[in-house]
Structures are given as structure tokens and as C-alpha cells.
Amino acid sequence: MKTLILFTIVLTSTMALAAQKNPLIRTCNSLGGEFVVANASSDQISFCKFGKSLVGALDLMLFNNKESITQSINSYMKNQNSCGGQIETMIVLGGNINYQVCTYPDGSLIELGTLIKGTNSADNDKLNAALGL
């Protein structure tokens, strides 16, 4: 029993340390989001979830660090309610949750419902706060 408890403590500590070192997870969590990974057709994609809103974790980090405003973030902030890229269904790891995701030519991502609802939707209030809107 002691071994199981020790193993659980070590595993939890290791996972927490890994999260602190990953800038995508750190940025997402520091802005009040939940880091989520989903399976796309050819890869695993990371997102930051704010309540009902979902945006690419890399896009959010680049915006937060003032490195770049990706097409997904730009389209959202301009309330463009249609996808300027390709729509793909992605499945969250460890669950049966499917999202329709708009993937832009620059590789940025946003969940289609988040984009369509735009900045004026109460469903996107937490994302708006993370973006400083």
C-alpha cells in the first residue's frame, strides 16, 4: 500500500513539473484555461479551453507573448463568423467529445462554434478575458 501511495505522489509530482515546463500548458493555465489535446486526422493538436470556448494553445501563447496574431485569433477578434480555412472534426483524448475546428492556412485553430458566436457571446466571456477584450 505504501508503494502505491508513493508511486501516486511521484507520478503526480512528475506530471505537475512537466506542465510547468511546457509553455503552452503554462500560458493556458495562467490565463484561466484548461489545456486539452485532441486527435486530428494526422496529428494530435493542443487547445486551450475557456468554458465553452476552444482556441489553439499555440495561437493563444503567441498572442499572449505578443509574438504574433494568428489568423484564428484575428478572425475571432474581428467577429468574422465563418471559417477562412478548412473545417475538421477533432476528438478530445480520453473522452467522446468531438469538436468542429476551423484550421487556417497559417496552421492556427479555433473551434467553429467559438468563431461563429464571436466576441459578443456570453459563452466566450472567459476567452475574451484571456485575450484582454
Helix/strand structural class: alpha+beta
**What is the percent of helical residues?**
40-55%
The largest β sheet comes out as: 6 strands, antiparallel
What kind of oligomer do you see? single chain
Query: Uncertain runs with pLDDT below 50, 5 residues or more?
Result: 3-17
Number of strands: 6
Question: What is the CA-CA span between the terminal residues?
Answer: 50 Å
Q: List the helices and strands in order.
A: HHEEEHHEEEHH
Shape descriptor: globular
Q: Could you give the order of strands across the largest sheet?
A: 3-2-1-4-5-6
Using brief descriptors, characterize the structure shown.
133 residues, alpha+beta, six-stranded antiparallel beta sheet, 6 helices, globular
Describe the protein.
The chain is of the alpha+beta class and 133 residues long. The chain has one domain. The chain is 42% helix and 25% strand. Strands 3-2-1-4-5-6 form a six-stranded antiparallel β-sheet. A hairpin with a 5-residue loop joins strand 4 and strand 5.
Describe the protein's topology.
Elements: H1 2-21, H2 23-30, E1 34-39, E2 44-50, E3 53-56, H3 57-64, H4 71-77, E4 86-92, E5 98-103, E6 109-111, H5 112-117, H6 125-131
Antiparallel strand pairs: 1-2, 1-4, 2-3, 4-5, 5-6
Describe what is shown at a glance.
The protein is an alpha+beta fold. It has helices at residues 2-21, 23-30, 57-64, 71-77, 112-117, 125-131, and strands at residues 34-39, 44-50, 53-56, 86-92, 98-103, 109-111.
